[in-house]
Amino acid sequence: RFLSVSMDAVPVIDASALAEGQPEVMVEEVKEACSKWGFFQLTNHGVDPNITSEFEDQMRKFFELPAHVKNGIRRSADNSRGYFDDELTKRKRDWKEGLDFGITPGSRVPGASGFTINGVSDASPEHDNLDGHNRFPSEEDAPGFRAAMWNYFTAMTTLAESLSEVMALGMGVPRDYFNSDLQKSHTSFLRLNYYPVLAASELEGGERPLGISPHTDAGYLTLLMQDDNCHSLQVRNRLDNTWHIVAPVPGALTVNTGDMAQVWSNGRYYAPEHRVQANTEKPRYSAPFFYNPGYQTKVQPLDTCVDAEYPLAYSHVYWGYFRWQRFSGDFADFGREVQISDFSVLNTKLRDEKRVIHQDEFMQTFDGNQKYSAA
Questions:
Q1: Whole-angstrom distance, CA of residue 156 vs CA of residue 163
Q2: Rounded to two decimals, what is the model's pTM?
């Protein structure tokens, strides 16, 4: 199954070994893909196509809802979850609409079912955490939406857990090494994206807008459902800085390495810069699942990844702090966006983490209107 990864195109990896209970078969191939591209497409991943089909159908229906319904669940400065059409990436407004929702830490307790915790919907402020609480349209406005979202979210969680074990083996640690920081305490969220057709008026003078400006993903790994009918996702080739279109393989999921994986691997895994072009002919739908550590997780290079060839590159970073900073940059323009380069051992600036790490275990909500220093 293993072929040396070319830099001519994003690699395609067969995930049959996961279903067969043999993740070690994939280790070298995934390791090389994460190291060279930080991007690959995953085929035969085992996700039920019926779950995927219903999810995609409900996603498209959501963006067709009346504006007043979507605006009624709009995210805010103190809640990162909900609908939005005004996100900033690298201080530039994206040409898209979206909806974010995710796991609530309390949903791991006995009695949890779907997005309901002991009979109380996690859309309730009672279940606020660092990311806030979920905001969904009502069953009356969007029949079957919530159930379809939960089913797909669960499928992505299961796949991400399996893939994280493969990545752990590639970093020289046991497959269950990240069990406590990821599987038992992950703070993942799922995003629905809709990129409208770029209007001709937007092309008249000035800079052409992008669906999403160049960026890296903040967490550990991302599982992306692409749109087979619109190929607008591009990844930057780290060797020559050219942009490559990631044309989706039908039925595959696109995977990319996140910033936290780059820190844990001491730079052996690469979090690639990528962007989405605005399209003048077709709309685009996509759904990235961001698999993220627990809020209190202290991410730092593994001993197995530090040697003469790869000397220590990063000091530690608390995921809750990094996530807080990144959402603040998405929600409002504070002049810069936090990057893992801020935590490089070569960066001698004093980072102000104390304002966040002494909070109550990162379980209170964001305040996106407040500026927190990243460096």
A1: 10
A2: 0.88
pLDDT of residue 359: 40
* Beta strands per DSSP E along the chain: 12-14, 39-43, 82-84, 88-89, 92-93, 97-102, 116-117, 120-121, 189-195, 210-215, 221-225, 233-236, 243-245, 253-257, 274-277, 284-291, 298-299, 317-318
Q: Which amino acid is at 92?
A: K
CA atoms within 13 A on the CB side of 90: 13
DSSP 133: -
Which phi and psi angles does 319 have, rounded to 5°?
-60, -40
Q: Are 180 and 218 in contact (CB under 8 A)?
A: no
Residues in the chain: 375
Would you state the torsion angle of the CA atoms of residues 130, 353, 212, 347, taken in this order, to the nearest 10 degrees?
A: -160
Any idea which residue has 């608390």 for tokens? 318
Q: Which of 267, 238, 262, 233 is nearest to 322 (CA)?
A: 262
- Residues 87 and 333: beta-carbon distance below 8 Å: no
Nearest CA to 140 out of 78, 72, 235, 206 is that of 72
pLDDT digits (tens, 9 = 90+) for 270-313: 999 999 988 888 899 999 999 999 988 999 999 999 999 999 99
Specify the pLDDT at position 206.
Answer: 60
Token pair recorded at residue 258:
């996140």
Position 203 pLDDT exceeds 90: no
C-alpha triplet 199, 204, 205: angle, nearest 5°: 140
Contact in structure between 331 and 88 (CB atoms under 8 Å)? yes
- In the 8-state DSSP scheme, what is residue 350? P
- Cβ atoms of 55 and 148 closer than 8 Å: yes
Residue with tokens 């890296």: 216
- Cα angle value 318/323/324 (rounded, 5°): 100
Which alpha helices (H) appear in 75-124, and where do they start and end?
none
* Residues 132, 80: Cα–Cα separation, whole Å: 6
Residue 98, classed as helix, strand or coil, is: strand
The answer to whether the beta carbons of residues 201 and 208 sit under 8 Å apart is no
pLDDT at 92: 62
What single DSSP character describes residue 180?
I
- 96-109 core/surface letters (b: 16 or more CB in 10 A; e: else): bbbbbbbbbbebee
Distance CA 326, CA 324 (A): 6
